[in-house]
Amino acid sequence: MTYDPNNIFAKILRGEIPCEKLYEDEHTLAFMDIMPQAEGHCLVIPKQASTGLLDADPACFAPLLATVQKLARAAKIAMKADGVTIMQFNGSAAGQTVFHLHVHIIPRKDGVPLKGHTGQMEQSALLKARADQIRAALSV
Ligand code: 5GP
Q1: Cα-flanking dihedrals φ and ψ of residue 108, to 5°?
Q2: Average pLDDT over every residue of 76-97
Q3: Which residues pair with 86 in a beta bridge?
Q4: Going from the N-terminus, what domains does the chain have, and what CATH number goes with each?
Q5: Which residues have any ligand 1 atom within 6 Å of their CB?
Q6: 112: how many CB neighbours lie within 10 A of its CB?
């Protein structure tokens, strides 16, 4: 599969469509997932273009995972979660719907099941409120 530079995350990276941004550095961007599977569900993407993990330049993995750890820690604290599910899909057969490499960070609470992967769009005020909590946890 060839990389489509007009996929939704490429547009977010170029600032062509908005996102609830949580963190950005030279190599990565983190933002809220608009259809969260649990409170505080966020995504981390490398700035380098690849459709998924399989065609990515391995050089992007270290900065990507460093940002995933940073966000997972902050989201767990901010959402007062008991654990964090980290997910990453490759190909539509595996459940991937956006074809720019991304890692899901999903704070989990004991006994609360994960919502469906293609769920409902969250209210933007709620997304912003959770993003504010995660941004606050990132800055301590
Ligand atoms: P995938 O199914 O490819 O692993 O995950 C794509 C994720 O991107 C889904 O969880 C979906 O909710 C999220 N998503 C899709 N479109 C947008 C968008 O325009 N903005 C944001 N922030 N997330 C999106």
Answers
A1: -125, 140
A2: 98
A3: 105
A4: 8-110+118-138 (3.30.428.10)
A5: 8, 19, 31-35, 89, 95-98
A6: 12
Residue 118 has pLDDT above 90, yes or no: no
Q: 136 CA to middle of ligand 1, Å?
A: 23
Nearest to 138 by CA among 82, 68, 83: 68
Is there a catalytic annotation at residue 41?
Answer: no
Distances (CA, A) of 20 to 54, 59, 78: 27, 26, 16
Where does the pLDDT of residue 120 fall: very low under 50, low under 70, confident under 90, or very high at 90 and above?
Answer: confident
Query: Predicted confidence band at 119 (pLDDT cuts at 50, 70, 90)?
Result: confident
CB-based burial, 26-37: b 16+ in 10 Å, e otherwise: ebbbbbbbbebb
**From CA 130, how far away is CA 78, in angstroms rounded?**
8
- pTM above the 0.85 mark? yes
- Sort residue 80 into left (φ over 0), alpha (ψ -120 to 50) or beta: left
Cβ neighbours for 41, distance < 8 A, ≥ 6 positions apart = 32, 33, 104, 105, 106, 107
Instruction: Exactly one of 41, 100, 102, 104 is catalytic; name it.
Output: 102
Mean pLDDT of 97-108: 98
